[in-house]
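FIELD: query
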Amino acid sequence: MGQAARPVPAQDAAGKPDIVLTLSCQDRIGIVHAVSGFLVERSCNILDSAQFSERPTRTFFMRVAFAIDGPVPYAVLRADFSAIADRFGMAWQMHDCRIKPRLLIMVSRLGHCINDLLFRYATGALDVEIPAIVSNHRDFRRMAASYDIPFHHLPVLPETKADQEAKLFDIVERERIDLVVLARYMQVLSADFCRKLEGRLINIHHSFLPSFKGSKPYHQAHARGVKLIGATAHYVTPELDEGPIIEQDVARVDHALAPEDLVAIGRDVEAVVLARAIRFHVERRVLPNGGRTVVFR
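FIELD: result
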């Protein structure tokens, strides 16, 4: 169906949208008309709309952010839209943007990503709630306290891993966590835990996946004489470092840099890429597409 012209983004128009609708289905005539007509009939003002049609599979993806200008309650909108969704065979979600997403951040002993995220959170650049920080070490307990965020020390040993993950999942449930962020958390989560949080678990990988997996990726990159290094944010799946990619970025390097220089440059890239991926997720800009993603920026 082609790319439609994008209206003025929400942040430049009437402010933050009330609702974001995301959907995917087989492409056919009338989808955009049906969605926009549904919203017009209920006095909803579209603030931002993006769409993409993947030609090989004829799969249509759409994200619509809108304000509710009429008296129709959110619950009624959801119930009413199901008829259109059924007609087109849509996989869809409707999100209430007036409720801030709740994040749980996990970290081990490298603090560049969590430091960046907490600063963005404190300044309002990351519009979320962070009711918990979890770590297998105590290194960032004081940092968490400085932001008045509860810190949970959950150490991991081979014989206690299952119990540790049970406690972690209890925090997720108790705090009504919408998204778990692995901000350089250096423990492999079990396949069972990953399945429980499918689509709600984001990791930052310290290399440009799928290259240079495993330990010391920057040293591997240095040994290969690379000219670009990067970072990858992806959803976590039971297959290690194989989850759908959300965001990536690179930095140019050269022969004069030592492995330690690459590590320092890489940390800056990691922090930016992870923050971007989280923002895309909480603003409902990421739509699953098999083992890949469609990201409406």
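FIELD: remark
The domain at 10-96 is CATH 3.30.70.260 (Alpha-Beta Plaits).
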